[in-house]
Amino acid sequence: MQAWRERTERALDARLPPATDAPTRLHEAIRYSVLGGGKRIRPALVFATALTLGLTEADVEAVACAIEVVHVYSLVHDDLPSMDDDDLRRGRPTCHKAFDEATALLVGDALQPLAFQWLARDPGLRATPAVRLRLIELLAVASGTYGMAGGQAIDLQAQGRRLELAQVDDMHARKTGALISASVLMPAECAARPDDASHRVLRRFAAAIGLAFQIQDDLLDVLGDVGTLGKATGADQERGKPTYPALIGVAASQARMTRLHEEALDELSHFGENAAPLRQLAGWLLSRSF
């Protein structure tokens, strides 16, 4: 994980516009938001999937960067007063606190198209035009109304209401799971296109690990501490968000997370020992404390 984080930091730093280029304030805010630390879980999933399928990290580095800046832009917008109104992210003031709300909006506006520019033109991505087009489509769907943005909309509408478990699952399958799935399916497109069975396995693995990851996030908001997480805890309960611990309790949430983890590992048996990177990453994801 540390090596993948360091690789992601270097790759993003090299691809982002320099802070000295005009408009300098916007570029400073972009670099502040993107290079401000973080777990880099989605790039790690890209790299682990690539290794599982016989690719190298270099083959998919641009994919990892594209997914990560979409994730970062979503965090910048989520933190705004019109959304979650958060003051702290990754142990530092959120973008709109460090700069201003208008700049934070523009950071998101600029990062989203930058991700698609990299998928279309990054010279390090040795992919045919047809593969690049599939990558662009996968990320667009994962980011849009049937994915991350749609999940966030459902989340905002659900605050203060009680949802059924299936509704919470659907919300998080979009809000969190869609980009997690893209982090697995996009590197698969860069390999020799997997057969239908392998593709179904990867899709089921990603769905299970994405939901387990969200349950872990909900649990950390209840059980974690601000010093470790780098952001305020207890915010979900304060806002009346429909989280797994609020709906089914802490113990049941932990049991469900464990069951989903086991299901994800069962899926990886299809790839045998080649899936060791994904198995190890899945284990780390669900044992983390931040």
Report what the structure shows.
- The chain is mostly helical and 290 residues long.
- It has a two-stranded antiparallel sheet with strand order 1-2.
- Helix 3 packs antiparallel against helix 15 and helix 7 runs antiparallel to helix 9.
- The model has no long low-confidence stretch (mean pLDDT 91).
What would you call the quaternary organization? Answer: single chain
CATH class: Mainly Alpha
CATH superfamily: Farnesyl Diphosphate Synthase
Average pLDDT, rounded to a whole number, is: 91
Query: Distance between termini?
Result: 13 Å
Low-pLDDT regions: none
Profile the largest sheet.
Answer: 2 strands, antiparallel
What proportion strand? Answer: under 5%
Order of helices and strands: HHHHEEHHHHHHHHHHH
> What would the CATH topology be?
Farnesyl Diphosphate Synthase
Which CATH-level-2 architecture?
Answer: Orthogonal Bundle
Question: Count of helices?
Answer: 15
Radius of gyration, whole Å:
18 Å
* Portion in helices: over 70%
What is the total domain count?
1
Overall geometric form: globular
Order of the strands making up the biggest sheet: 1-2
User: Which class of secondary structure composition applies to the elements?
Assistant: mainly alpha
What is the number of strand segments? 2
Which SSEs are present, and which pair or pack?
Elements: H1 2-15, H2 24-34, H3 41-52, H4 57-78, E1 88-89, E2 92-93, H5 95-98, H6 101-121, H7 129-143, H8 148-158, H9 165-190, H10 196-223, H11 226-229, H12 235-239, H13 244-248, H14 250-268, H15 276-285
Antiparallel strand pairs: 1-2
Helix pairs in contact: 2-6, 3-4, 3-9, 3-15, 4-6, 4-9, 7-9, 8-9, 9-10, 10-14, 14-15
